[in-house]
Amino acid sequence: MSEPKKLFIKTYGCQMNVYDSERMAEALGGQGYVETQSAEEADMILLNTCHIREKAAEKVYSELGRFKGLKAAKPDLKIGVAGCVAQAEGEEIMRRQPLVDLVVGPQSYHRLPELEAKARAGEKALDTDFPEEDKFEKLKGRPKAKRGPTAFLTVQEGCDKFCAFCVVPYTRGAEVSRPVDRILTEARDLVERGVREITLLGQNVNAYHGAGPNGDMSLAGLIWELDKIDGLERIRFTTSHPNDMTDDLIEAHANCAKLMPYLHLPVQAGSDRILKRMNRSHTADSYLRLVERIRAARPDILMSGDFIVGFPEETEADFQATLDLVEQVRYGYAYSFKYSTRPGTPAAERPQVDPVEADDRLQRLQAVITRHQREIQDSMVGREVSVLFEKPGRLAGQMVGKSEYLHAVHVQAPGLAAGQIARVRIVASRANSLAGEPV
Ligand code: SAH
Ligand code: SF4
Ligand code: F3S
């Protein structure tokens, strides 16, 4: 038998890219590839890219430049670009960096085996279509290999919201939901292979409306179906849009024991003037009222969010409104970004905020977010949580896992194994994790 070819995949961007990279590795497994962690020994290098901010997109070209030496040493090495930069820039990538052999957009991954064969034959291979067929149904099934206790499962892709700053509707296309039975089959398969927690993924995951046995099913409906799977202990979902946070989903947070008390619900800004210009179609007040309803249903829920500062025409008063909103919500985790101009999006044409001012706002916002994060993490001390253990810690006999609120928890308990869930009392709050003792 010939040596298997080696595939090196580097993944940027969101969790959907992480999921896609796994699926691409599996698809290329059928072409005789095994994964390697080293670019040096690879026969094929795939960059799974992100286009969300300018820095993310530019990183791809500097990374590609670093492969020049590898390609000179091994002329058979094939280099591919997948993901959102591939979709946004297409052929331009090969023009700008001629060592690229293959460019494939996120909706065409099921065509990867053909594209790989084309590249092997010495041709340039490009596919950035939005085909009618569902890539997930055409992608090879996952092999039956054992897995760690947590997994991502994409249930929805694309976005129809068109926030004025965002490239996702252009790189991932229109909203599409996968059918319920396919998701349940994949979830059962993951559980058989050792998975205990599944995070359902979608750019707008709570807009999910996949075909079910009796018509379309909502995300809440899907969660209740997943709830019936024995051995699946925890369900999460991300990312949600405030406008799709329906009553049945809020009710699931109150009544579905497997649905974890954690919700990523980006608001982006706290000023109605800016929200309007962002085309978010919600106000700061409607968001705050929504958070109130969610907390009434599940009082201990940990909220997380995303923010953009320095959006075109954002004034100091607008920014203060963002700080106010953050003070009211108190996020357990929040991610904040300086606005980055994306070519082709409506906001790119508008008057920009002075970058020094934007930097200053970002720092001020991050200081508040970090303070809340810290206070919320520290407030866990003395409480009992459940921890799903994922891997051994650095010390002998130590295991690390996540609480239901996604805090990392270290426990000294030699008897514990990955995949087990245990009740743990939190005894200390460290820099980036909690320490606990089994109860
Ligand atoms: N679908 C999700 C997340 C999209 S991208 C949602 O609607 O919330 C993740 C985050 O990147 C966004 O929530 C936003 O905060 C940030 N982001 C998107 N476009 C950006 C841009 N042009 N500049 C800076 N941050 C951006
Ligand atoms: Fe981008 Fe807005 Fe869609 Fe989220 S909802 S992916 S921020 S356009
Ligand atoms: Fe980036 Fe595409 Fe995800 S732009 S954030 S990889 S959907």
UniProtKB/TrEMBL annotation:
GO MF terms, alphabetically ordered: 4 iron, 4 sulfur cluster binding; metal ion binding; tRNA-2-methylthio-N(6)-dimethylallyladenosine(37) synthase activity
Lineage of producing organism: Bacteria, Pseudomonadati, Pseudomonadota, Alphaproteobacteria, Rhodobacterales
Keyword match Metal-binding: yes
Cofactor(s) in the UniProt record: [4Fe-4S] cluster
Keyword 4Fe-4S: yes
Cofactor binding remark: Binds 2 [4Fe-4S] clusters. One cluster is coordinated with 3 cysteines and an exchangeable S-adenosyl-L-methionine.
Gene3D superfamilies: Methylthiotransferase, N-terminal domain (3.40.50.12160), tm_1862 like domain (3.80.30.20)
Compartments it resides in: Cytoplasm
Binding site for [4Fe-4S] cluster 1: 14, 50, 84
Pfam annotation, one family: UPF0004
Residues annotated as domain MTTase N-terminal: 5-121
Subunit description: Monomer.
Domain Radical SAM core: residue ranges: 145-378
UniProt entry keywords in alphabetical sequence: 4Fe-4S, Cytoplasm, Iron, Iron-sulfur, Metal-binding, S-adenosyl-L-methionine, Transferase, tRNA processing
Assigned protein family: Belongs to the methylthiotransferase family. MiaB subfamily.
Protein name: tRNA-2-methylthio-N(6)-dimethylallyladenosine synthase
EC number assigned by the record: 2.8.4.3
Organism: Ruegeria marina
Binding site residues for [4Fe-4S] cluster 2: 159, 163, 166
Function, as annotated: Catalyzes the methylthiolation of N6-(dimethylallyl)adenosine (i(6)A), leading to the formation of 2-methylthio-N6-(dimethylallyl)adenosine (ms(2)i(6)A) at position 37 in tRNAs that read codons beginning with uridine.
Catalytic activity: 2-thio-N(6)-dimethylallyladenosine(37) in tRNA + S-adenosyl-L-methionine = 2-methylsulfanyl-N(6)-dimethylallyladenosine(37) in tRNA + S-adenosyl-L-homocysteine + H(+); N(6)-dimethylallyladenosine(37) in tRNA + (sulfur carrier)-SH + AH2 + 2 S-adenosyl-L-methionine = 2-methylsulfanyl-N(6)-dimethylallyladenosine(37) in tRNA + (sulfur carrier)-H + 5'-deoxyadenosine + L-methionine + A + S-adenosyl-L-homocysteine + 2 H(+); N(6)-dimethylallyladenosine(37) in tRNA + (sulfur carrier)-SH + AH2 + S-adenosyl-L-methionine = 2-thio-N(6)-dimethylallyladenosine(37) in tRNA + (sulfur carrier)-H + 5'-deoxyadenosine + L-methionine + A + H(+)
